[in-house]
């Protein structure tokens, strides 16, 4: 994307055998999406106000103030340039700095939209849209995060005053973690147990004002602050994750979000025909966005590691010629290319999940709740699968860059530190896999009952065949047949689920059985989610994809993704009898040959992400590959090099040296 200067990767770019510009459009999702993304990326990169190369050097206070400045400036630009919602979302993406605005737009607004009545939406959304109030999502407490039904904050209805009294009865009921809460939010959607006439009606959302709109001071009864520094310097410390306690704070009755359940003036609790799981709807929305974000974080790390692997040379000089580019080592390819393929795979499954979410939202509006369990299982499972894979991949990319990957200027340490909480927030990844497993066990238990599995479990309707089929691959080329690959993944996923269901049936208490078998259940859930990713990649290839060689590259990546999973999890495939050891070895042979096909296209495949050097934030991942001079120059910019003799020399170094000198003379 960058222009000018010597292009050290030019030769690599000439090797590619496909139309990179068309691939950029496939990656972006459409020509329109590409144009928006490209324009906004350049806007951010060219504006010094969005500089980010000094983040690691700032103290927490400076860092946070700097984030406030950037967020305010971004909002001003959104207004001045009259950016659309799509453009504004891209602006946030390329600014590349976690901020309170993520929670305001990403959770507070969606919570009101999804759980508020029409009237409540009309009252609160205009204020939120104009940022006249700033909100956060205050669910997690010191004592409970995963177990939402275990939250302790109470909202007790007072019929005398027509108010709820929000209270934190214990230390462990303190809200703990919500982003944007610590120092910024004026309001929260706070989750609390609804108590009416002494009866507990479970957890619901309430809009609570936290701070004065005049002087930003906490309102009476509110104790609020930041929970402290998090992993890494810079990184997620731009966010004010907060702690909050309520001391009998009164709010009007109409500030309970009442789409799912209403409390009347008389204190009557009325359940609407909307399922209570809709209270969890904001989490479904965010989990879906997290899957797309995974492909962004992964592609960024892979772009850095791929470009650097083409620049870096070690060993293998022939007759004084250049040494071998490390990207030509088969071990480097077998570690790197599956990650490149995963970035594309997650992109396409993210697109599909967005479609699924839009579809379920439209159905919910028409009071059709039938696809909610499927949406929950898919968003929970794919969020878990893609974030775990991406977190591991960023660390692998760091190692792929050798020693220089450990430098902050490689961009990888900060990316890792910012990214890894995605495995925990919005649902711990193991807890979410167990949700998928419950869904699978339910589906398996209904097989043969006449109820046909649909959506992501539709393959289970062919249970009879999949339980006994034998893989037909006899030659290396057979592993390039989508049907052969898909059937192997379907059979493996089904057989693992059925094995769990059979083992579960041996327990008289199903909950006890579920707990005992939970590690196997989580593995069955992973197999199911991997099948979804593979099948959505295969479906993508059935579309009309223009551009010379583009579809062929995607086919290669699809098989790299699938066959590397098959190789990595061959224990599953073999133990369930889905493939034979000979077939596993043929698949691995095919995989090796695919790596050779990816090799000449690798640089162009990462160029297709269309990332600016500003967004990448990496000396190793520079578009022009001019790594060494930049690394060298950057080192001298470190504050430690401001003086030749370090501060502290006279107090702490010189006396030691002099002491040694004296000892030596003795
Ligand atoms: C103009 C300017 C524009 C500017 C644009 C700016 C653009 C910015 C836009 C977007 C940015 C987005 C960025 C977002 C950034 C986000 C940063 C991350 C912040 C992180 C936030 C958080 O972490 S919030 C807290 C999240 N917490 C959790 O995830 C908790 C995890 N636990 C749970 O989800 C659940 O409690 C559980 C799933 C574990 C349930 O357990 P349990 O078995 O106890 O459940 P229940 O008894 O309550 O219910 C069981 C029943 O319900 C089904 N179910 C559970 N969950 C759901 C669900 N979500 N949906 C539907 N159904 C659900 C479950 O399957 C059971 O069903 P049965 O049929 O009974 O089996
Ligand atoms: C950076 C960050 C930002 C966040 N932002 C917000 C926010 O804006 N708003 C908000 O409300 N919350 C937020 N959170 C909180 C987050 O949603 C929770 O931390 C998350 O849901 C995990 O819950 P927990 O901390 O209770 O983990 P725990 O459930 O205590 O997990 C601890 C361990 O126990 C295991 N475990 C737990 N239950 C089970 C089980 N049933 N079976 C098997 N294993 C289990 C887990 O796998 C994990 O290994 C944020 C967290 C982070 C790290």
TrEMBL record:
InterPro entries reported for this sequence: ACOX_C_alpha1, Acyl-CoA_ox_N, Acyl-CoA_Oxase/DH_mid-dom_sf, Acyl-CoA_oxidase, Acyl-CoA_oxidase_C, AcylCo_DH-like_C, AcylCoA_DH/ox_N_sf, AcylCoA_DH/oxidase_NM_dom_sf
Keyword Oxidoreductase among record annotations: yes
Cofactor(s) essential for the protein: FAD
Record flagged with keyword Oxidoreductase: yes
UniProt keyword terms in alphabetical order: FAD, Fatty acid metabolism, Flavoprotein, Lipid metabolism, Oxidoreductase, Peroxisome
Active site (catalytic residues): 426 (proton acceptor)
UniProt-listed GO biological process terms: fatty acid beta-oxidation using acyl-CoA oxidase; lipid homeostasis; long-chain fatty acid metabolic process
Listed GO MF terms: acyl-CoA oxidase activity; FAD binding; fatty acid binding
An example Gene Ontology CC term for this record: peroxisome
Main location: other
SUPFAM superfamilies, per database record: Acyl-CoA dehydrogenase C-terminal domain-like, Acyl-CoA dehydrogenase NM domain-like
Acyl-CoA oxidase C-terminal domain ranges (all copies): 482-658
Domain named Acyl-CoA oxidase C-alpha1: residues: 280-441
Transmembrane segments: none
Residues involved in FAD binding: 140, 179
Compartments it resides in: Peroxisome
Domain Acyl-coenzyme A oxidase N-terminal: 19-134
PANTHER family per UniProt: ELECTRON TRANSPORT OXIDOREDUCTASE, PEROXISOMAL ACYL-COENZYME A OXIDASE 1
UniProt record similarity statement: Belongs to the acyl-CoA oxidase family.
Name the UniProt record assigns to this protein: Acyl-coenzyme A oxidase
Originating species: Rhodamnia argentea
Gene: LOC115727278
